[in-house]
C-alpha cells in the first residue's frame, strides 16, 4: 500500500529534491500517476511533526506572522466568493480542518452567519483563533469526542497535500462529519504551476489526481478553479475544488491513470520561467509589508 491515492506499490522515482535541508524522494505511481513521498520515508508522516516542527522550520517561528495572516485573509476572501456562487443556502455549521489562525472561519462567520469550529494542531495558531472567539480543537479525534454533530460545510485549505492517508481521511469526513447534501471545499497547490516539492507535501496534486482522490473517497468534484490568488496574476498556482458526496459511491471505484504528468510538469515550469522573465510583476504579486509592532 504505497500510493496515497490508489494503494499500488508499483512506482518509479520521479525526482530527488532538497527541502529545508532534508533530502526528499518523490515517486510516481505507475498505476494512477500520482506524485508522492513514501509514508515510510517522510519526516512529515510523523504526527508529532505538525505539533513541534512544522511552523518553526517553515516560518522560522511558531506564531502567526503578518505575511502568513495576509495570505490567509486574501485566500479567505477568495474562497468565500467562490462558495457564494455555489451555495443554494448558507451553511449553518462550518468546520475548517487545518484552520490555522482561524481567518477563514472568521470570514464564513461574518459572511454566512455560520456557527464555526476549527481543527488545528499548532498550539500558537489555535490560541490566536481562540482570541477571536472561535471554537478550536486540537485534532479530529477531539472534535468527534465533543459531539458537535455534523456540518453543512467542511473546508480544507492547503491540507490535503499534507495528509498521509488522504482517501481514508476524506472517507471519514464523508461518514462522520458531513451532513447529507453537505459541501466539501478544498484548495491545494497545483503541480502544473506551483513548485510543490516541500518537506511536508506528501502528495503533489494535478487537476486529474485531485478529482480521482475525491472519487476514490466517494466524492464528486462539482467545480474546479485553477488560479493564482493571492500570489500571481499569470500562474495558476492553486486548485480550488467544491465537492459533494457522490450518490453512486458504492462498490469499487476505478481510478484512471493521469497521463503525461512529467511532460505537463516540464511545459508548465517552462511557462512559469518565461512569465517570470517577461512579466515579473504580474507573475509574482507583492505581499504588502506589514509593520510588526
Ligand atoms: Zn496510485
Explain this structure to me?
The protein is 34% helix and 24% strand. It is globular, with a radius of gyration of 19 Å. By secondary structure, it is an alpha/beta fold. The chain has a single domain, classed as Rossmann fold (3-Layer(aba) Sandwich), CATH 3.40.50.150. The mean pLDDT is 93. Bound molecules: zinc ion. Zinc ion (ZN) is lined by residues 3, 5-6, 8, 29, 31-32, 34. Zinc ion is lined by residues 3, 5-6, 8, 29, 31-32, 34.
Attribute tags:
seven-stranded mixed sheet, globular
Q: Indicate the CATH topology.
A: Rossmann fold
Please give the number of β-strands. Answer: 11
Based on Cα principal axes, name the global outline.
Answer: globular
* Alpha-beta classification: alpha/beta
Radius of gyration: 19 Å
Major sheet: order of its strands?
6-5-4-7-8-11-10
Distance between the termini: 49 Å
Which class in CATH terms?
A: Alpha Beta
Q: Treating each run of at least 4 consecutive H or I residues as one helix, how many helices?
A: 10
Classify the helix fraction into a percent range.
25-40%
Amino acid at each position: 500500500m504505497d500510493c496515497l491515492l490508489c494503494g499500488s506499490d508499483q512506482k518509479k522515482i520521479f525526482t530527488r529534491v532538497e527541502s529545508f535541508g532534508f533530502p526528499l524522494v518523490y515517486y510516481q505511481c505507475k498505476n494512477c500517476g500520482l506524485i508522492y513521498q513514501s509514508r515510510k520515508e517522510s519526516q512529515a508522516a510523523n504526527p508529532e511533526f505538525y505539533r513541534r516542527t512544522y511552523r518553526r522550520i517553515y516560518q522560522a517561528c511558531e506564531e502567526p506572522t503578518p505575511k502568513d495572516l495576509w495570505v490567509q485573509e486574501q485566500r479567505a476572501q477568495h474562497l468565500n466568493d467562490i462558495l457564494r456562487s455555489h451555495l443554494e443556502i448558507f451553511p449553518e455549521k462550518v468546520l475548517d480542518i487545518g484552520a490555522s489562525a482561524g481567518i477563514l472561519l472568521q470570514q464564513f462567520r461574518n459572511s454566512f452567519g455560520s456557527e464555526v469550529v476549527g481543527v488545528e494542531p499548532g498550539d500558537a495558531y489555535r490560541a490566536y483563533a481562540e482570541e477571536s472567539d472561535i471554537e478550536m480543537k486540537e485534532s479530529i479525534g477531539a472534535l468527534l469526542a465533543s459531539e458537535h454533530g455534523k456540518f453543512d460545510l467542511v473546508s480544507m485549505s492547503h491540507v490535503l497535500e499534507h495528509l498521509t492517508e488522504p482517501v481514508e481521511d476524506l472517507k471519514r469526513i464523508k461518514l462522520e462529519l458531513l451532513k447529507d447534501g453537505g459541501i466539501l471545499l478544498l484548495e491545494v497547490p497545483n503541480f502544473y504551476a506551483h513548485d510543490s516539492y516541500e518537506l511536508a507535501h506528501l502528495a503533489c496534486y494535478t487537476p486529474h489526481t485531485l478529482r480521482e482522490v475525491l472519487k476514490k473517497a466517494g466524492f464528486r468534484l462539482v467545480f474546479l478553479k485553477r488560479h493564482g490568488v493571492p500570489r500571481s496574476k499569470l500562474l495558476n498556482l492553486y486548485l480550488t475544488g467544491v465537492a459533494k458526496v457522490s450518490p453512486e459511491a458504492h462498490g469499487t471505484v476505478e481510478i484512471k491513470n493521469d497521463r503525461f504528468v512529467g511532460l505537463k510538469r516540464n511545459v508548465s515550469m517552462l511557462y512559469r520561467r518565461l512569465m517570470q522573465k517577461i512579466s515579473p510583476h504580474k507573475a509574482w504579486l507583492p505581499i504588502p509589508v506589514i509593520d510588526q509592532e
